[in-house]
Every structure is written in C-alpha cells, then in structure tokens.
Amino acid sequence: MGAVHEALAALSLVDHHCHGVVTDPLDRPGFESLLTEGDRWPGVSTFDTPVGVAVRRHCAPLLDLDRHAPAEVYLARRAEVGPEEVNRRFLAAAGTGTYCLDTGFGPAELAADDVHEVVRLESVEEALVAEGVEPDAYAEAFRSAAHAAVRRPGVVGVKSVAAYRTGFDLDPARPSAAEVERAARDRVAAVGRLQDPVLVRHLLWTAVDLGLPLQLHTGFGDNDIRLHRVDPTHLTDWLHLTAGTVPVMLLHCWPYQRQAGYLAAVFEQVYLDVGLTLHHVGPARARAVLEEALEITPFSKLLYSSDAYGLAEFYALGALSFRRGLGELLQDRVDADELSLSDALRLVEWAGAHNARRVYRLPGPS
C-alpha cells in the first residue's frame, strides 16, 4: 500500500449520514429485501447484483468464510454467528469512530459509542398531523415541534426527503402564511405522508430557520423517486435565496454527482457525499464515482457517509469502498506528481473526518 492508502486505513471515519441496523435474525427473504433499493421479483435473487456480489466477496471473510462464498453458505454462517456478533464484526471492520444517525426511518439502533442524531423533518410533521392540528395553527405548530425535536441532546442536523415526496422542481420562494393555511386544510384531512408541494416548501424553509445543517436526499433511492425530478440543480434558485443561512448537505447524488459537484463549487453552503452509492457499486467502481464527484468539488466540501440501513454489512462495505476508491484516486495523482503527498494526506483527513466535524460542530479534532 502507498502512503495515501495507509493514511485512509488508519483514519477513524466520521459517517455523517447513516441508519440503524436490524438486531433480529434474518431469513433469506428478509436479508435479500435489505440488499436492494427496489422490489424483489420471483426467480431473481438480489445477491445477483453488484452489491450482492460485493457482500459475498468482501464481507464473507469477516464471517470466517472464503471470499465469494455462495449465498446460502453466507446466510447460514450469518445465522450461526448471530445478529449481535454479526453487527459487532461489521461495525468494527468499518473503522468508523463517529456516526450521525437518521432516526426517522427504519431501525434506530446502533451499538456504537459516539452517535449523534439527525432529525427527519417529515417524521416530525407527520406525527404532528396524526395527533391532530387545526389548519390555521399548522405553521406555528410545526415550527414549535421542529424546534423541540432539534433541542434534544445529541441532535446535530436535520434531514428532508423532499426528493421522494415532490422532487426538487418546486417554487423556491418561502410560501406565504395564507398559502400554508390553505394547503394545511387538505393536509389535515388526508393525514398520511406529507406530499403537498406548498407544505414541503414550508418544511424546507422551516429547516433553514432551525439553523442546523440540512441533509437532502438526492438522486438514487427506491422506486418512490422520480429520478429526473431529483437532479440537485433544480435547487439552484432556492440555494440563491438561502445563501448565508445553513449548510446544505447533498446525500448520495448518483447519477448526479457531477451536478452536485458543480453546486458545491459555486455555492458556499453546499456539501456532498456519495454514500449509499458506494456500497451499491462496491469497491470495484467506487473510484469511478468518487472521481466524477471530485472533478470540480472543493476538497473542503466532500464528506463520507455509508447510508448503511438495516444490514451491518453496509457499514463495512461503504467504508471499504470509500477508503479504496479515494485512496486509488489520490495515490495515482501523487504518483503522477499532480498532487503532493502532504496535500493528499490532508485531503484524506478532510474528506474522511474533518469536514464533517467542522460542519456539524462535532467534538474532537476539527
């Protein structure tokens, strides 16, 4: 290994966006459902995907199996080891020291020492509506509920899944009180998921008012997303209007990592990661994704996330993909004399830990 790879291997990562892991035993259908962002289809195994192959290649040895162990062997060994030990092994292999956990969806458990919370604002809004609120009181009630949620100990940021609900091709302006009240009449009657464009805009502007880093799911996700509507450049006018307010963290980004890089290059408040993408493409293609993301992105704007969800394997696989992909990219530039070794080592620490600690004001070296 070159010096860049060695530095990445030794670095304690800050995972600025992730989810909890399943703590119960998983049968094959349960495991395979968590391997994919899509649906499962009869006769098709999600092990026969890039991420499924990567799990068998890179995670099997952590269960004391040969590389490329067959799926049935892998799952049998996983069951034998048991959920608690499986999760411990994969989290340890990730080499992550600090986690920012999205607690608004799926399992919220993570057996780690340094865990901070990211509040999903749609969950706050949906809980408020389920409890009952009058349309004329909706705006203030949501604002109060959001403020209460972020005042909890350990909260370092907020998140929106507007990408899933409406996409980003929204009117960028802050909606008026009258617009919010009119939309709230239908919203209160419907309950369920927040999908009204006016109220999603209200949520995003409320997020700005909270003053914490705002994470936005961007690009790749499950089939609720209309991918053409989640190109982050749709946010351009909104980013102009929110300049000088809060950091905007573009999550995942694929296939729009270049567009996200452009926004990070021209807007002071924009940052990005390629989490989720990395474990789905695996170490074999991580460099290609990171290379496109970093074509014009300022080095102070790239963060690491795993977006691990459900399977602890994704913590290990995401970290491995990040370390290997970034290491190959930077080491080759050092070897070609396009980058000094001292600069490369500084960029390793920035992307893997420093940038996240600075933006989220996390304790520890920043």
Features:
366 residues; single chain; 7 strands; 49% helix; globular; TIM Barrel; seven-stranded parallel β-sheet; alpha/beta; 2 domains
Explain the overall architecture:
β5 (214-218), α11 and β6 form a beta-alpha-beta unit. Helices cover 49% and strands 10% of the residues. It is built from 16 helices and seven strands. The chain folds into two domains: 3-22 and 95-360, TIM Barrel (Alpha-Beta Barrel), CATH 3.20.20.140; 26-81, no CATH class. It has a seven-stranded parallel β-sheet with strand order 1-2-3-4-5-6-7, with helices on both faces. The chain is of the alpha/beta class and 366 residues long. It has helices spanning 3-10, 28-34, 50-59, 71-81, 83-94, 121-131, 138-150, 162-165, 177-190, 197-210, 236-241, 257-266, 277-281, 283-293, 313-335, 341-360; strands spanning 13-18, 96-102, 115-120, 155-160, 214-218, 248-252, 270-272. The radius of gyration is 21 Å and the shape is globular. The mean pLDDT is 96.
